[in-house]
Amino acid sequence: MSDVALNGCRVLVVEDEVLIGMVLEDILDMLGCTLAGSAATMGEAWKAAESAAFDIAILDVNVGADSVYPLADKLLERGVPIVFATGSAPESLPARFSACTVLEKPYVYAGVETAIGKAWAAAKAG
Predict the structure, then answer these.
(1) Among residues 54, 72, 49, 52, which one has the least CA distance to residue 9?
(2) How many angstroms separate the CA atoms of 114 and 79, rounded?
(3) DSSP character for 78?
(4) Is the per-residue pLDDT at 24 higher than 60?
(5) Strands of 101-104's sheet, edge to edge?
């Protein structure tokens, strides 16, 4: 996938590890994506999800002690493609999220590019 294909993709990032989130944001910038919002807590994530305009959400599965699944359910109801970020096996996600893209941590350029590319294609198709 070329970087040009991702230009204009607006991404909401929910990541509670600040340095890891900064790496992800840098990769998104290199890919031509626009950071539509960034949240490190579930409270911030809910606010960003309600107020920001975005095409895709990258959601860390565990945000502090909180699960991101209730927010994921809400975003899916709205038709927002989700990329789950996790260091665990993709099979550890609840079955209702089996159609969502999984991005393995730690973040690497090629992995983010592939995951965002899949979600962006779904957003443009749907």
Answers:
(1) 54
(2) 20
(3) T
(4) yes
(5) 34-39, 10-14, 56-60, 82-86, 101-104
Question: Contact, 37 vs 58, CB < 8 A?
Answer: no
The residue among 68 and 4 whose pLDDT is bigger is 68
Task: Pinpoint the alpha helices (H) of 17-125.
Answer: 18-30, 42-51, 69-77, 109-125
pLDDT tens digits, residue range 72-111? 999 999 999 999 999 887 788 999 999 899 999 999 999 9
HSE-up (13 A, CA, CB side) for residue 61: 18
Domains of the chain plus CATH, in order, are: 3-125 (3.40.50.2300)
Q: Are 21 and 58 in contact (CB under 8 A)?
A: no
**CB atoms near residue 66 (< 10 Å):** 14
